[in-house]
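Notebook entry, structure prediction.
Reason for the run: the old model in the group folder had no record of what sequence produced it. Starting over properly, with the input documented here first.
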Amino acid sequence: MQLCDSICGLQQKQITHIFASFESLCNHPHIQIINMEETILKTLEYQITIPSAHAFLVRYLKAAHADKKIVQLSCYILDGTLQSYQLLHYLPSQLAAAAVFIA
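New structure, fully documented this time:
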């Protein structure tokens, strides 16, 4: 169970781009870690993802009962954020909220 917990923690860290060494997670052999990671991914059917700004946008628009015009305008604004390198340090939820607010 400790190994499974360690692998899930490692996968979570990899997804969020915060890498940690195997040694700091647990004291299991490298091959055992790889095998457990493979087992977890197969169990999840490789359905792992990080939240995107679009997923937050859909959620916010649904909560706001937005009309078609607001939906289209906020999608357009959010798509425009993909072209700006300066906006990369904002969280996806913040970008989506800003797009709805501006629309």
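Summary: The two ends are 48 Å apart (CA to CA).
The old model has been moved to the deprecated folder.
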